[in-house]
Amino acid sequence: MVKKIRVTIWNEFVHEKNDAAVKKVYPDGIHNAIAQGLKKEMGFIIQTATLEQPEHGLTEKVLKNTDVLFWWGHMAHGQVDDEIVKRIHQKILDGMGLVVLHSGHFSKIFRRLMGTNCSLTWRVADEREIVWNIAPSHPIAQGIAGSFELPGSEMYGERFDIPEPDQLLFVSWYEGGNVFRSGCTFKRGNGKIFYFSPGHETYPIFYDKTILRILANSARWAYSPIRLSTNDVPNQKTPLAPITKRKPI
């Protein structure tokens, strides 16, 4: 029997309660829109968590039962408790997958993993975005056309202050002329990370079938059946082979 992948979708869930325009697009929250889309795919067990919950909904028990964590944040990055970030960071090093979406590039966890500011240029001008699939053989890009269009999007542009990705999967072009590395993979410790930029809160991007297929593919790719702790490194006092005793010089 094939094991189902346990996915936790985290969303700060602030915009949807404070901004009428956002609430109109995502009345039940971005996390639930993604969850409903992924539920149409086979092989997932899905739960959600939000900022306002105790421990931001990311308790030790929740993370122990999470194979892949999705992260969407924007206006409340600073409200995420540092101890929770430390906890998530260790779980990723041990093998939990992470999918960071859109403005999650400025989240504490992504910046900690990247070791850079993760800054970029941006513009909200309701412009067309064409996403180019430049690695069609990669598992995340399976079943995705050579390019696809989002009729309205927030522009994210270069330079994107991240380390060189392990692999660049998607590149976006915007109507205003900017380009952006919109789909990047990384590995930290035993954990696999995918950053994917489309997904501004005032656009219905997380209802798009192509976007949801990419998210499902990314969860399957980021999943690891084995967790190996990178935290405990034993002191190996007993040698593996005899050591010849040498006379002091």
TrEMBL record:
<feature type="domain" description="ThuA-like">
    <location>
        <begin position="6"/>
        <end position="222"/>
    </location>
</feature>
<protein>
    <submittedName>
        <fullName>Trehalose utilization protein ThuA</fullName>
    </submittedName>
</protein>
<dbReference type="Pfam" id="PF06283">
    <property type="entry name" value="ThuA"/>
</dbReference>
<dbReference type="InterPro" id="IPR009381">
    <property type="entry name" value="Trehalose_catabolism_ThuA_prok"/>
</dbReference>
<dbReference type="InterPro" id="IPR029010">
    <property type="entry name" value="ThuA-like"/>
</dbReference>
<dbReference type="InterPro" id="IPR029062">
    <property type="entry name" value="Class_I_gatase-like"/>
</dbReference>
